[in-house]
Amino acid sequence: MLNALILLACDEGKYQRERSINETISRVLNVSMKTIDRVKKRFVEEGFDVALTGKPSTCVYHRKADGDLEAHLIALSCSAAPEGRQRWTLRLLADKAVELHYVDNISYETVREGFKKNVLKPWKQDGWVIPPLSDGNFVAHMEMVLDVYKQPYDPLYPVVCISS
């Protein structure tokens, strides 16, 4: 957004002296002169899209927490807390996932992101309504739903979750 405002202001002030317009843009948008020069240079050398959005990231991150691991963590968080603990913590869940060989290593932050992404709050026990796992019918249906979430994303066939 800021880069777009810089380019727009540069275009509107194209008949003024460059130093004068840069100083005005710097004062109005509260950016440094160096930032203005960098945006203009990127626009000239790499094009409009790159000037607006910046360079695309070349970093490739591999997801450590797939749907299967998230399902294991959810089930684990619903179970009884370890001996001497009142409830599961993110660090305890991460350590237990490694101990049970679900993953080689995982940070508690990755566990937190999984719960946040799925809008889960296992520490709010009054919000969880899960029947005892002895009910085979429930477990079978739960596994079918979890299998759907493990499938890779396909934009032509998005997965839509509707809860009542």
What's the N-to-C terminus distance? 38 Å
Portion of residues within helices: 40-55%
Q: Radius of gyration from the CA trace?
A: 25 Å
Low-confidence stretches: none
**Number of helical segments with 4 or more residues:** 8
Summed up, the domain count is 2
Strand element count: 0
Backbone shape: elongated
Assign the structural class, choosing from mainly alpha, mainly beta, alpha/beta, alpha+beta, or little secondary structure: mainly alpha
- Please state roughly what percent of the residues sit in beta strands, choosing from under 5%, 5-15%, 15-25%, 25-35%, 35-45% or over 45%: under 5%
For the largest beta-sheet, the strand count, sense and barrel status come to: none
Taken in chain order, the helices and strands follow as: HHHHHHHH
Overall pLDDT, averaged? 81
SSE layout and pairing:
Elements lengths: L1 H11 L5 H12 L3 H14 L1 H6 L13 H12 L11 H10 L8 H10 L18 H15 L14
Helix pairs in contact: 1-2, 1-3, 6-7
Description:
This protein is mostly helical. It has two domains: 2-53; 67-150. It has helices at residues 2-12, 18-29, 33-46, 48-53, 67-78, 90-99, 108-117, 136-150. The protein is elongated.
Features:
single chain, 164 residues, mainly alpha, 8 helices
Explain briefly what this protein structure is.
The protein is an all-alpha fold. Helix content is 55%, strand content 0%. Helix 1 (2-12) runs antiparallel to helix 2 (18-29), helix 1 (2-12) packs across helix 3 and helix 6 crosses helix 7 (108-117).
